[in-house]
Amino acid sequence: MEHIVIIGNGISGVTAARHIRKLSDKKITIVSAETDYFFSRTALMYVYMGHMKFEHTQPYENWFWKKNRIELLKGFVTAVDHEKKTLILAEGKELAYDKLIIATGSKPNKFGWPGQDLKGVQGLYSKQDLDKIEANAPNKEACNRAVIVGGGLIGIELAEMLRSRKIPVTFLVRENSFWNGVLPSGESEMINEHILEHHIDLKLETNLVEIIADENGRAKAITTDKGETIECNVVGLTAGVTPNIDFLKDSGIELGRGVKVNRFLETNIKDIYAIGDCAEQHEAIGNRRPIEAVWYTGRMMGEALAQTICGKPRQYSPGHWFNSAKFLDIEYQTYGWVFSERSKQEHESHFHWRHASEKICITASYHKDSKKFLGINTFGIRMRHEIFDRWLTEERDIDHVMQYLKDANFDPEFYSHYEEEIISKYNSVMQTNLSVQKKSWKRIFSKA
Amino acid sequence: MKAIKNLGLVIFLIGLAVFAAVPVLGTFSLDQNTFDEIVKEKNIKSDVFIQSINENVVGKDFNGMLSLSPTISSALDAANNQHKKNKEYNKVIYTSGHDMAALVGKKSGTGFISQNKGLMWFLSFGLGIIGALMFILPNVILLGKKGIKNDGVYHDSATNRGWIAWLVFIFLVSFYLILYFRPEFAVNWTFLVDPISESLSGNPAGHWFVYGFMYCTVMTVMAVRMYIKYRHNVYQVVRTTSVLFFQIVFAFLIPEMMVRLQMPYYDFKNAFPLDYDFFFQWNLKELLNSGGIGLFILVWGIVLTLVIVPVMVYFFGKRWYCSWVCGCGGLAETLGDPYRQHSSKSLFSWKVERWLIHGVLLFAVVMTGMTLYSFFTESSTIFGIKTQSVQNTYSLLIGAIFAGVIGTGFYPIFGNRVWCRFGCPLAAYLGFVQRFKSRFRITTNGGQCISCGNCSTYCEQGIDVRAYAQKGENIVRSSCVGCGVCSAVCPRGVLKLENGPEEGRINPTEVLLGNDVDLMDLVNKK
Ligand SMILES: Cc1cc2nc3c(=O)[nH]c(=O)nc-3n(C[C@H](O)[C@H](O)[C@H](O)COP(=O)(O)OP(=O)(O)OC[C@H]3O[C@@H](n4cnc5c(N)ncnc54)[C@H](O)[C@@H]3O)c2cc1C
Ligand code: SF4
Ligand code: SF4
């Protein structure tokens, strides 16, 4: 029986394992060092905030693995010997494989800041990081202030976590507005306001210079490039992530920033594959980045690779881009591509609408000549994935999207609707005379 | 703000302490006239009992129910034993000792409590309400910006099965035990609400009136908490208002008014088989003897169960009843909301759930079948089994212990829908309709789920919502009561409760939207 070994029990490795099991009878082993069982990394924050217990982040009950004959092995892989088709584990144990899937995820970036390894300095990625933050910042008495370095999605999550225990937070962001490398300015500004509403001390265009230690080797303050010194007990490093592949350095597997893979997710070495956060495409797919460190990508790669492993070779060819996040109280969804002013191409135009008083807005992007709809960002309004996916496939123009926006609304029942407001702004900006079409179940459920 | 909250807590606890102390306080002195009235009213033929009470109770002062109740119970037991021994069956008294003590207590309460009803009401209910509101209202400001407010749920002893939760558990269970099995200790409570009862139905309050009044009060206060907690979520606000309205108007006010108008006591929204004694002989007789309104209620009750309930479930799902109308659901969604995370999500619990709830439904149906058979044939047994004893067993095990003591008492430990999930026969029936013939579903939003588990954690019905959502599959489960909280707590906007065409409602998927379209076609077509 062929033995499939997967390193990493994150979403990508586990999805691959589940699908391989569905398609075949192969022997499957997942080796991972972090936790005994698969858990959802995206939910770490909710454990600290007391919304959930850690066990709630585990999507499958503990009997699931045995029942599905997926063997779990806790251990750290220190090296891969592809000639002998063997893994070397930390205690010197070895594990033979027939096919190997590398799904080792990421680790937080550290940019060589002085003091970055002091006590009280940490990232937020793993279960161990969760335990650390619980120890470092149990309450506002033990932690008088935390400084978070890096204004991305994990940074704002960490800020929200600490604020849930009323810990004062200073948030250093390199850009001149929150996440504006990704978000268009209107949205980014709205999030800036919201961050301040939550009493987070947001410092834009500010970089970390140094973390200063006290006599016990614990962080006691930081300095910024604005010459400021900020006293703090905890420093959160959330300036992005890098593939977690140090153990592969001398393995002969081709590495870039991540493990280099082709569209079949194969590495340069036969029978070794890489998926999820640690995989790097030779060439970016469409507008995607070569390394896509998001949950959905890990899952999709796992789904695709299982087919290949089980004898039905299939490229990783994802559909339309989508993503979501939550900035404190504001939910964000995106479908298709909406680029920020900093990275958008010349043909991409935006239509932006923001609610007069609530923190609700949308930005739709379209081709400035053909008016083809390219994508949408929504804040504080939920949208139907299926509808936008279909509109993108059908290459609808933005007028169509605006008229049929009600079909796409996914907010809970009885919520206020904003389509009328949106379209009237659209009409006045675009010199059109469109009107909102009533929601139609028939359209929503028609399979194009 | 914090100070107001703390003061509120203190006031609330004082009210609670008074309420908890009242049952064992008070003076009871039965005079001869009153006892003669009771004898007449209850048609008591036991000379032994009458004599014993005349000697030991009448004209004496009893300090608290703890001393009165045993005297009456033992007099009653002794009398019954003697009559049974002498085969004087016509003299045996069938009222239980506890009910008799309650009756005597109600008529003979003389102490401070029964003479200062208003004041005592204020010191218990009044302080409780004021204190609770002072504790809850500052949250408008303290909770900060509107949004999901589950911070610290698992850090707080009250909501994480800590010692506070266990105290609440003990309090609730004791309360229900008194209500169902020791009504004499509720007598003093009834004094507190006599004025209210008299103004509604014209009669002094019984212990069920205390319960009804308390139910409404607790729901109202805790609904205020819901409004504040979910003020960003219109669905929750509307739903809470609805369930509160039906409790206060349909379950409480209308039945009391009907009594005043010499009509049968009836809750128009309480559908059989939740209303398990609807077809009991005494009820049918009462309805048939009540003229037009009785007949109307009879027809309404049958139409409600056979037509209105299933048709509404077809269009809106079982939520229209369970989380918009039902009284049990109403309490669960208000008082029970802080405990919703305790329902077990394991596959094992789901198995237990299916056996239990369908077992209870079967029990209810068989019992009702026997009841009707007995009613029409006027024979009291079927295959040698006494209909009456089946009814009594159901009333005790299901009606009192399961629905009451466990159903509500266990809130702080097993979550707020223990009864609705494991026991309610009406829920089982609605569930069949919802699962197999309904337009309701919770739509999963394509591939957006990040498997975080908020939805499953906060599902009061113990549904592992995430198990479906992370597969891109809609949630169509017989037990879902449509509370909408899974959708509210989802940080990625993945879930939407909606009523739509039946086609495509159930959509098993393996590969989720967002991936290779050909792969999706290949894997998902079955
Ligand atoms: C706090 C946080 C919030 C996030 N929120 C979102 C979100 O909202 N949406 C979204 O799309 N994405 C989110 N992400 C990103 C998402 O979680 C990742 O993209 C995803 O978890 C990557 O999955 P993976 O399977 O590739 O790797 P991982 O989940 O990182 O799993 C890899 C596993 O392999 C183990 N491992 C690594 N090396 C070895 C070794 N040598 N030997 C043994 N075991 C090893 C690791 O310990 C780890 O357990 C978030 C990430 C974090 C940290
Ligand atoms: S599935 Fe959602 S709506 Fe249904 S009962 Fe559970 S939490 Fe409520
Ligand atoms: S709460 Fe939302 S994102 Fe989290 S597991 Fe449930 S459906 Fe998925």
TrEMBL record, chain A:
Keywords carried by this UniProt record: FAD, Flavoprotein
SUPFAM superfamilies, per the entry: FAD/NAD(P)-binding domain
Domain named FAD/NAD(P)-binding: residues: 3-284
Cofactor: FAD
InterPro entries: FAD-bd_OxRdtase (IPR050260), FAD/NAD-bd_sf (IPR036188), FAD/NAD-binding_dom (IPR023753)
Family named by the database record: Belongs to the FAD-dependent oxidoreductase family.
PANTHER family reported for this sequence: NITRITE REDUCTASE [NAD(P)H] (PTHR43429:SF3), PYRIDINE NUCLEOTIDE-DISULFIDE OXIDOREDUCTASE DOMAIN-CONTAINING (PTHR43429)
Record protein name field: NAD(P)/FAD-dependent oxidoreductase
Organism expressing this protein natively: Zobellia barbeyronii
Upper lineage: Bacteria, Pseudomonadati, Bacteroidota, Flavobacteriia, Flavobacteriales
UniProtKB/TrEMBL annotation, chain B:
Domain 4Fe-4S ferredoxin-type stretches: 440-468, 471-500
Transmembrane stretches, start-end: 119-142, 163-181, 208-228, 240-259, 293-316, 355-376, 396-414
Pfam families for the chain: Fer4_10 (PF13237), Fer4_5 (PF12801)
Keyword Ligase: no
Keyword S-adenosyl-L-methionine: no
Domain of life: Bacteria
Keywords (A to Z) from UniProt: 4Fe-4S, Electron transport, Iron, Iron-sulfur, Membrane, Metal-binding, Transmembrane, Transmembrane helix, Transport
Protein name in the entry: 4Fe-4S binding protein
Native organism: Zobellia barbeyronii
Taxonomic lineage of the native organism: Bacteria, Pseudomonadati, Bacteroidota, Flavobacteriia, Flavobacteriales
